[in-house]
Amino acid sequence: MTTPEITPVKNATYHNNKGDLFTSFDVNDFEVPRGRDEVWRFVPLRRLRGLHDGTFAPAEGPDVVVDVPEGVDGVTVEKLAKGDARLGRAGGAVDRIGAQAWSSAPGGQLVHIAKGVSVDQPITITVTGKGPDVTTFGALVIELEEGAEAFVNLHFVGTGTHADNHEYLVGDNARLTVVVHEDWDDDAVHCAGERAILGRDSVFRHTVACFGGGVVRNVPQVKFTEPGGDAELLGVYFADDGQFFEQRLLVDHAVPNCRSNVMYKGALQADPDSDKPEARTAWVGDVLIRSNAQGTDTYEVNRNLVLTEGARADAVPNLEIETGEIAGAGHAATVGRFDDEQLFYMLSRGIPADAARRLIVRGFFSEVIGRIPVASLREKLEDRIAEELENTPL
């Protein structure tokens, strides 16, 4: 009897389930992605400026500024050199661009919140692009020890080509809120891999607000390591002519009695007569409930409003369940236009049609933005939506 030959699974493809992805810190372990590859099928590869195949412009370290509120004790900010053992503790990259960032970044930033420390004002981390002819690679670690609490505003501005990895290490009974604000100029390219590791009874709140950039791709992943964890992944995005935004996420329920909630909302508008590419978004949401994750309670939803012709939204929710002993699980996704009943109701009360449509869109986003705990940031995002709507021919 001959032993059958086993062909290794290709890099970045699913193994036994969607949580068992090949990971690595070395870009050479990944093949150059092609348009037909599952995890890249929505992405305009030609617009990535070589991040995916190594042909990017000369690379430098990123311009990163960390602002900690005055008078706060127990918060340490440190620049880490390449190879520091405190980098990469959440695991390697799941795709070639993430691995390229690990291979090329000169080091990273560590923000550490000590045991029991509560920071009631935002810690703001600003990453500024270095221009269209420069590529930057970075790494960021946010670590909370047991019982700590913090809010981090991660703000991306300017223009350039940037790829980075974010690690969120949330200790037992700790609570971390993160807002990733993609506020780039409209010609920027940004690809971010994000990995959160949650301890016992920890709480993680992660919100993506994506309005700027030419091509922006976020890959957040959450893994529960002890029971009692609670994760909420939220997102708002508004794509115009020539913009492509992708959110591709995974929530990995690997232990019992954890909760997750995923809610992303997006709007798209474009001018069919423009010479720019169409406005396009893609959302892929994977939730995995492993065989030993009894008592899991999870739900994910993605809603998209297509405001004009020349815009396209793809929404792919996936729910994989390996045990029947769960508290609840569900998913949903929609792509559509205005709610005609809402519009009729507002018109019947004398509200002009354009104003009514704008109110509907703002109300559509408010369910997500209203969950951000800092009023000044909520107002900033509301203002950004209003600014987008001023240029939308509704």
Automatic annotation (TrEMBL):
For this protein, the record's Pfam families field holds: SUFBD_core
Which GO biological process categories is it annotated with? iron-sulfur cluster assembly
Report which superkingdom the organism of origin falls in: Bacteria
Q: Which InterPro entries match?
A: Fe-S_cluster_assembly_SufBD, SUF_FeS_clus_asmbl_SufBD_core, SUF_FeS_clus_asmbl_SufBD_sf, SUF_FeS_clus_asmbl_SufD
The coiled-coil segments of this chain are: none
SUF system FeS cluster assembly SufBD core domain sequence ranges? 132-364
SUPFAM superfamilies per record: Stabilizer of iron transporter SufD (SSF101960)
Report the sequence similarity comment from the record: Belongs to the iron-sulfur cluster assembly SufBD family.
What protein does this entry describe? SUF system FeS cluster assembly SufBD core domain-containing protein
